[in-house]
Amino acid sequence: MIGAAPHGPDFAGPAGRLFSDNPSFTANLEMRTTNSPGANPIIFSGNLAVSGVQSRFEIDMTRTAAAQANPQHAATLVKMGLDKIIVIACPDRKISDIIYPGFNAYAEVPSSPTAGAPAGGFKTDVTKLGEETIDGHPCVKNKVVVTDDKGNQHEYTVWNATDLKNFPVKIEQTEGGTMTTMTFTDVKLGNVDAGRFEPPAGATKYYSVGALMQQEITKRANVVRAPQ
């Protein structure tokens, strides 16, 4: 779907256990997803803010691999108001807000069925694999297996930075044939303002991304066609 937004880690799900020592932070996040060997990865990057299970991922769609390879595509995104997308996940309230600043609008949608699982429902096993340096940070490379209360296991390779209170500056996971790599830079640990997890005041609210796209793109097209 045009304008569809990627989601960052589900901090209420298994991946959230990787951040249990650092529940609040801001960082730049690059996500690379590959669905098959040799395929070009899908790359998204943006600014991430996290407080407990809540997260805010601000994505610049003009910085995706597709937009970087095709400047005309990037220009079209800007023209259509789709160059910036913000995803606010609030699994404790079982909703996510998909915000389109170019439209001054957002869609409030239900969280994924797996979101909001209680942290106590997970068991974490860590095995040290070695030591490496990532982006200048000395790291312990670990295999982390998170088991949920139904016995499902989720395996990650994690680089924990010893100079950032063991923050996971790089995470790799292969699940369901898809490999995802998350790299965090410019990490700042500490509390995040609660206001960052609220939709913008005055923005038009919708209950699906499809309805938002239909209404807002139609309104924009009508403005373009209006006589001067």
SSE blueprint and pairings:
Layout: E1 24-34, E2 42-51, E3 54-60, H1 65-69, H2 71-80, E4 84-90, E5 95-100, E6 105-110, E7 123-134, E8 137-147, E9 153-161, E10 167-175, E11 178-189, E12 204-206, H3 209-225
Parallel strand pairs: 6-12
Antiparallel strand pairs: 1-2, 1-11, 2-3, 3-4, 4-5, 5-6, 7-8, 8-9, 9-10, 10-11
Supply database-style keywords.
outer membrane lipoprotein receptor (LolB), chain A, 12-stranded mixed sheet, globular
What's the N-to-C terminus distance? 32 Å
Enumerate the strands of the largest sheet in spatial order, edge to edge or round the barrel. 7-8-9-10-11-1-2-3-4-5-6-12
Overall residue-averaged pLDDT value? 86
Number of helices: 3
Specify the structural class.
mainly beta
Q: Mind describing the biggest β-sheet?
A: 12 strands, mixed
What percentage of amino acids are in beta strands? over 45%
Shape: globular
The top-level CATH class of the domain at 14-121 and 184-225 is Mainly Beta
- Rg, please? 19 Å
Write the element-wise H/E pattern from the N-terminal end onward: EEEHHEEEEEEEEEH
Helical amount among residues, as a percent range? Answer: 10-25%
Low-confidence stretches: none
